Amino acid sequence: MKKTKYMMSGGLAFSEQKDMEKLHKKSLKGWHVKSFKFMGYELEYGEKEDVIYNIDYRVLEEDEKEEYMEFFSSAGWTHVCSEANMHLFKAPSNTTPIYSDKDSKVEKYQRLGKLINGAAGVLLVASIAFFLLSIITTGTFKDIARIGFFGVLALTVPAMMTAAAVYYQKLRLKI
Amino acid sequence: MKQIEQLTDSVFYIMAALSNPRHGYAVMALIEETTKGTVNIGPASMYTIIKKLLQQELIYLYDDSDSRRKTYLLTQKGREVLREDIERRKVMIQLAENGLKEEQE
């Protein structure tokens, strides 16, 4: 069994660059990403290597995957893992970044924004629905609606913060 | 998605390379070779731009028999857009060259 350990993510929407830099430093010490793990990464111990990490967000159709991966591998990037439309790649530290121009980088955050805005929107509608339900109902239904409201709200707030963070990233790139 | 009006340098390079049928890696390699390594297009940028050009019908899927290495080619519309941008860039270069010449005289 190889030694593994968990590294928590700072939240990709908030600190993608910091995450990538942290992973780079870990690799210098011999810890390499094996896979995404709940809110973070699973690292595996091995040879010390100077590798950098880049992440892409993209919805890929089944017939697009092979070509997409081929683009990266022929440019020197090794696919590490994918989950929920996030794709993590690594390469020797002098490799050209996967995004080399501003326009396509802005579009990267637009795609991420769309994914998150969708989720945040659904949650927002759900929390409003529970709130209204808790007003118009009485007794047990009111209690259930209240619990539902706070439960969904606990997810809505971070989702909306994430959406705001992505929007900010996008804005910063455009200036 | 916003229509490409003025082609960015990356888009210009990629469209120029697709005046002949080429797959993604061949495009990247051609650009790197022609510019002696001064211009490198990252794979995610490349993929984004190819998808955008397809959507705007400036290029089309020429051959997908190899699913890893699909080839693309400029459409008639793509050729026109590229020609227009060449003219725009010529004006830029002429302005700069004339300016430098006048300075020398």
UniProtKB/TrEMBL annotation, chain A:
Chain segments annotated as transmembrane = 115-141, 147-168
Q: Which UniProt keywords apply?
A: Membrane, Transmembrane, Transmembrane helix
> Would you say which domain of life the source belongs to?
Bacteria
Q: What is this protein called?
A: DUF2812 domain-containing protein
Q: Which organism is this entry from?
A: Mesobacillus persicus
UniProtKB/TrEMBL annotation, chain B:
Q: Name one GO molecular function term.
A: DNA-binding transcription factor activity
Alphabetical list of InterPro entries matching this protein: HTH_MarR-typ, Metal_resp_DNA-bind_regulator, Tscrpt_reg_PadR_N, WH-like_DNA-bd_sf, WH_DNA-bd_sf
Top-level taxon: Bacteria
Q: Which Pfam families match?
A: PadR (PF03551)
Which segments does the entry list as coiled coil? none
Q: Where is the HTH marR-type domain?
A: 1-105
Q: Which PANTHER family match?
A: PADR-FAMILY TRANSCRIPTIONAL REGULATOR
Protein name per Swiss-Prot or TrEMBL: Transcriptional regulator PadR-like family protein
